[in-house]
Specification:
138 residues; alpha+beta; 4 helices; 4 strands
Length: 138
Amino acid sequence: MKENHDSVDIGHPGQHRMLELLKRIYWWPGLKEDVKKYIQGYFKCQQNKVQHQRKAEELHPLDIPQELWQEISINIIGPLPTSNGMDAIVVIVDRFTKMIQLKATMMNILLEGIAKIYRDDIWKLHRIPRKILSDRGL
């Protein structure tokens, strides 16, 4: 079960996806219950589990920017397998055109590092945005 759940290239599938992966190769009595127990006992999965709410919240879409590079979103993808000393990717997206800029980095990058990446690699090509959106506090 560890090979079909904890591996970096599989990405910690949930209970149903892991069960489908295992059933392609293996079967044993109580397979479904064993998978359920394994997922429930894996701390990271329980910590990151999406909590479904019964009451639907009203969504408020963001306004569409009127110019190129007026508003951007910044996020980090990672941790990834280390390559050339880097284990993450900074993703910067222009919200108007959806143009994307990617830069290899480390997961432990600080706000100053993000600002340096923007200054050195993005600003010279585009402009200083009026608004920056991020869900990671960057």
